Amino acid sequence: MRTGPRHRRFAAAFAPPRTQQPALAAGAVLLALALSACAAPPPEQRAADAVESVRSWTATVRLATESWLKEKTPLPYTRLTLQKGEQTLGDALRTLQADGVPPQVAGDLALLRAPEASARRLAAAVERGDRSAARRELAALEEVEARLRALDERLSAEEAKR
Amino acid sequence: MKLSPRQLIEVALGVLTSVGGYLDVGAVATSAQAGAEFGFRHLWVLGLGTLVVIFLVEMSGRFAAVSGHPLRAALRERLGFNFFVATSAAEMVVGVLVLASEIGGIALALQLVTGVSYRWWALPVGLLVWALLWNGTFGVLEKGVALLGLVTLAFFFAAVRLHPPLGEVARGVIPGGGGHDAAHYWFIAVAILGALISPYLLWFYSSGAVEDHWSASDVPTNRMVAVVGMGFGSVVAASVLIVAAMVFLPRGIVVDDYAQIALGLTTALEGKLGFYLFAASLGIACVGAALEAALAMAYVLAQGLGWNWGESLKPRRATRFSVTYTAALLVSVVPMLLGVDPLALTVFSMALTAVALPIAIFPFLVLMNDERYLGRHRNGRLSNAVVIAVIALAFVLAVVTIPLQLKGG
Fold first, then answer.
1. How does DSSP assign B142-201, residue by residue?
2. Angle at CA of residue B24, ends B12 and B10, nearest 5°
3. Which superfamily does B5-408 belong to?
4. Considering CB atoms only, which of B112, B304, B309 is closest to A77?
């Protein structure tokens, strides 16, 4: 198959667009919005983001371990997911603390730290194949998860009031 | 519409391959994120996107069948060389990002099963896709991989098994907003539209029609395949969203890693079946989409520049065409080798696709309304209006929500 230059007869009748102003204008708007987006988020948003992330990965770690206990997932997957969970939970906390802990969660740091340590212990239990240790850790994590849910809901309610 | 037995078989095969080939890494990622964070509230976006895909796929097939022209060659002759260069450059950038996302999806599927990091898989996966392109023919690649893609129906069975509340599902089909997190809601809506309405699908589909020597008699078959195949295909994407809404939302899991998405099918199905079906679905869907994306880039350049082209030709008979998809693959493995987060890359690529949609789709509509190419088969007002409205909506939303999303992290 061969196509292309032989069809130029149409091009003569229909010249290409003389101006690309609409595209440039759209690009300028996008650039302006992108530059305005560079400002750091306010403390209440940083708090909400951190709690959401910790809550999400706490639940992920728990679900991944439960699936492993029910023999629904292979060991390599469980190992990687727990490692990722531990890393993400740690990152969320470090990001939160980097620009000063927002007052909204200043009293909840111990709660926010707990899942990272729990993920580490679960990863060790899974590695050893110690199911009873994993079950014990899961029971403790369930309680932490409930408190995180309450914290998340409290922050959402405060956000809604604003 | 009366179809001959041969046409019926073609329709059946076309529908099966459309369903099997509907999902790609973008549809999986964006649907899972939508379901996890907003329940069923993005189902209407999937419906809207599918409607536009049906229109566009039908148009691109009709164009190839009636005019016998490859789309990009026609666009160049209709709108000129400068226009071709400008639009092709934009599409190549987006195409490489999409291809990188698909390669990331395959590598992630392998990581899930083996535990070996996706970064190690990027190069072998790139080689595998290249080898398939180099040695395969269009028919084998299109139909073979898409039929394997029927494994994605696992999402549908999982969704049924989870017994979603039908009233809430029905409410999700009605357009609504995102509540307090409106910016994120609309960003995900944009990403869903970008994932579904991929311009590469048009270039691939119409080029395939030319490679398969379609004629005007294939127009009814094409229409049936577009409507039924894409319609059923969207059910698979909706199932991904429903599974995510049922499994992740109640637990407060916000999807930011493919490992989390795997837990959806794993939770819904018995034993290890769900886990392995997810890995297979992700891997096969992404192989199909990577083949399409790489070929689409080669089609765009080769048709526009008048090179020999055709996946059914031996590489030595279409050298520049083959070199183009080889180069596209080489560039696309780089982000994964560098350890770019595959899910973040996917969602961002899909949103960027939405920004680029007008560049690809509006000139295409100009072509679809040109009597000299299509005669009495040219577009009607309804299809023009629907496509223009949705593409404009996707573009405006993308321009507004991408910066807001960057601000929100």
1. IIIHHHHGGGGGHHHHHHHHT---HHHHHHHTS----GGGHHHHHHHHHHHHHHHS-HHH
2. 15
3. Amino acid/polyamine transporter I (1.20.1740.10)
4. B112
d(CA A104, CA A11): 63
**In the beta sheet, which residues pair with residue A2?**
B308
Which residues have C-beta within 8 Å of that of residue B123, sequence separation ≥ 6?
Answer: B333, B337
Helix (H, G, I), strand (E, B) or coil at A69: helix
Q: What is the pTM of this model?
A: 0.88
User: Which of B67, B71, B76, B114 would you mutate first to test chain A, the one with the most A CBs within 10 A?
Assistant: B76
Query: Which stretches does DSSP call E strand in B198-273?
Result: none
pLDDT tens digit at each of 409 positions of chain B: 667 777 788 788 788 777 777 888 889 999 999 999 999 999 999 999 999 899 999 999 999 999 988 888 898 989 899 988 988 998 899 999 999 999 999 999 999 999 999 999 999 999 999 999 999 888 788 788 888 889 999 999 999 999 999 999 999 999 887 676 788 898 899 889 988 888 888 888 888 888 888 899 899 999 998 899 888 889 999 999 999 999 999 999 999 899 999 999 999 998 899 999 999 999 999 999 999 999 999 999 999 898 988 888 888 889 999 999 999 999 999 999 999 998 889 888 888 888 888 888 888 899 899 999 999 999 989 888 888 888 888 888 778 777 766 655 4
Going by C-alpha positions, the residue among B86, B14, B132 that lies closest to residue B300 is B86
Q: Looking at beta carbons, which residues of chain A come within 8 Å of B359? A: 23
Contacts with A49 from chain B: Cβ below 8 Å: 408-409
